[in-house]
Design goal:
5 strands, 15 helices, about 325 residues, alpha/beta, about 60% helix, elongated, about 10% strand
Length: about 325
């Protein structure tokens, strides 16, 4: 058993478990900051699973000549070889006073003995679950604004995810930029001022207009994007994403928005948008639209002579299919 947490509130053992790097890094920094609050001379020693040399845990955790507290941070325990695992298990059996062990494990079976031993020894466990679905990203961005005491509309969060949501780290950075550089309520116009030129944002605006059957607006946005140097490939990819969402929601039937969102791995606003967009569509038309996008995807990736014509033809086809219903 470990001793009671010191004045910092941080116990001698901390396990940060999960693949989401942004959350894991924040958990590590907050843990170290809490230790520094009561131990200003804290020494932080960092070890890495893939580059570990035998005996480093024992050597680095040994009391220094001048005393003082240490934080032994071991990253990538999921990449640990037998030497590191053995040394960590040995440390857990005989903890060193004034040494806080912080282990980071991204997931998988390697290093699992260390995880289990830390949990049995009373380690504080901080989860860093993967942020993959659009619902997860919506929750993450919403929390980012709320944590900073800022209000962002649902439309602003949606637009931000469409613009930068592929990478969680970039999403976190975009949230911070809006928090730091703006005042008042963050709305869609605010997001468009900062990120409206992004490929994803442009692609979703084209797709929204296309599935609504607004050919003039869809082609205007598309041609402006292409004239600005945007590659056709990501625009076709966004068209495919939008149509797949329509098909998923159409096939899910009726039900509470929240329940469908959870089951389909989508955000509630995406369910609501898809339901609105589905008006005027049927299964046959959606199938034909998907085929048009698939043909464009093949063409813009080298299978056709004119990528620009291919994406324009796909957008025009989607608009016509919608307008015929």
């Amino acid at each position: 058993m470990t001793s009671a947490p010191p004045a910092s509130g941080v116990p001698p053992l901390v396990l940060i478990s999960g693949p989401e790097a942004v959350i894991a890094e924040r958990a590590l920094e907050s843990t170290l900051d809490a230790l520094r609050c009561t131990q200003s001379d804290l020494e932080v020693v960092r070890l890495y699973g893939a580059a570990y040399e035998p005996g480093q845990v024992g050597m680095q955790s040994a009391p220094s000549l001048f005393g003082g507290a240490k934080a032994l941070v071991v990253s990538d325990v999921d990449e640990a070889g037998e030497d590191l695992q053995s040394d960590l298990l040995g440390f857990l059996k005989s903890p060193v006073e004034d040494v806080t062990l912080v282990a980071l494990h991204k997931g998988g079976n390697r290093g699992k003995k260390v995880l289990e031993a830390m949990k049995k020894s009373g380690a504080r466990v901080i989860e860093a679950p993967a942020i993959k679905s659009d619902k997860d990203k919506t929750d993450f961005a919403t929390h980012e604004f709320r944590r900073a005491g800022r209000k962002a509309t649902a439309g602003a969060v949606r637009s931000l995810i469409e613009a930068v949501g592929r990478d969680v780290r970039e999403l976190a950075s975009a949230c911070k930029q809006l928090i730091d550089d703006t005042t008042g309520v963050i709305d869609e116009d605010t997001v468009h001022r900062y990120h409206g030129g992004r490929v994803d944002a442009t692609g979703f605006r084209v797709a929204d207009a296309a599935v609504a059957g607004n050919s003039a607006e869809a082609l205007r946005l598309l041609r402006h994007a292409l004239a600005s140097g945007v590659d056709p490939v990501p625009i076709v990819a966004v068209l495919a994403v939008q149509l797949r969402q329509l098909i998923k929601v159409a096939g899910a039937g009726r039900g509470p928005t929240g329940q469908l969102a959870k089951g389909l791995g989508m955000a509630p606003w995406q369910i609501e948008r898809a339901r609105r967009s589905l008006q005027g569509w049927d299964v046959e038309a959606l199938g034909a639209a998907i085929q048009a996008v698939a043909a464009a995807d093949f063409a813009v990736k080298g299978g056709g002579r004119d990528p620009v014509y291919a994406v324009e033809h796909a957008v025009w086809t989607i608009c016509e299919l919608r307008r015929q219903r």
